[in-house]
Amino acid sequence: ESYVALFTEKDFLVWLWNSLIITVTVSFVGVALSATSGYAFSRWKFPGRNAGLIFLLTTQMIPAGMLMIPLFILMVSLKFTNTYYGVLFAYSVTAVPFSIWILKGYYDTIPPDLEEAAMVDGASRLGAFTRVILPLSTPSLAIVYLFNFMSAWNEFIMARVLLKDSERITWPIGLFNLIKDFDAEWGVYAASAVLITIPVVILFLFSSKWLISGLTLGSVKG
């Protein structure tokens, strides 16, 4: 009865669809930005490089609650409140810095000689990056994607502040709305809690081989 009520009386599919759109987009944007930025920090020496890395690391020490007010003011000025763009921007701000650090550290373990050999054979710098570095970095890219996915999939506070329209809310807000002041629909709540784990389980099973290879990489030296 709880599962039937979840699909017939509640907008569960709308919550799930909104969460998937936001989460998948944030994950791809985070991987794309961090892959190129981490490569730049790893391979080139430029003014402000060390300061930039320290700044990115420092941003991870700021509690998420302290970012709500400045991000909300920024979203209001950009008229991004109650839109996907505002949530995507807010999530990317918190996900990209940590992802850059992860990929930068992984790129440091890849010998530059591989890129130089590719460029000697006629590849450009971009070609060496896309054909040599990215395939070798598949385990770390999978870890970054999963980290960004989980961070955006479970996020509640920022979505609660930025999303007010019932047609745009994500599943954490939808589950929160099931708890009333003097009553709670615990059956429907539990049913939805079971269903929302399915996308995460599917993603983990799909990326498990890359995650395992990333965790064991470097443990054995030939």
Describe the protein's architecture and organization:
Residues 215-222 have low confidence and may be disordered. α1 crosses α11, α2 runs antiparallel to α10 (171-177) and α3 (49-59) packs across α5. This protein has helices spanning 2-8, 12-43, 49-59, 64-78, 84-108, 112-120, 125-136, 138-154, 157-162, 171-177, 186-195, 197-216. The longest helix has 32 residues, at 12-43. It is an all-alpha fold and 222 residues long.
In short:
The chain is mostly helical and 222 residues long. Helices cover 77% and strands 0% of the residues. Helix 6 packs across helix 7 (125-136) and helix 8 (138-154) packs antiparallel against helix 12.
Q: Percent helix among the residues? A: over 70%
Question: Ends: how far apart?
Answer: 58 Å
Low-confidence stretches: 215-222
How much of the residues is beta strand, in percent? under 5%
Output the radius of gyration: 21 Å
How would you state the average pLDDT, rounded? 85
What best-fitting shape do the alpha-carbon axes yield? Answer: elongated
| SS-derived structural category | mainly alpha
Helix segment tally: 12
Task: Give the biggest beta sheet.
Answer: none
> How many strands in all?
0
- What is the N-to-C order of secondary-structure elements (H for helix, E for strand)? HHHHHHHHHHHH
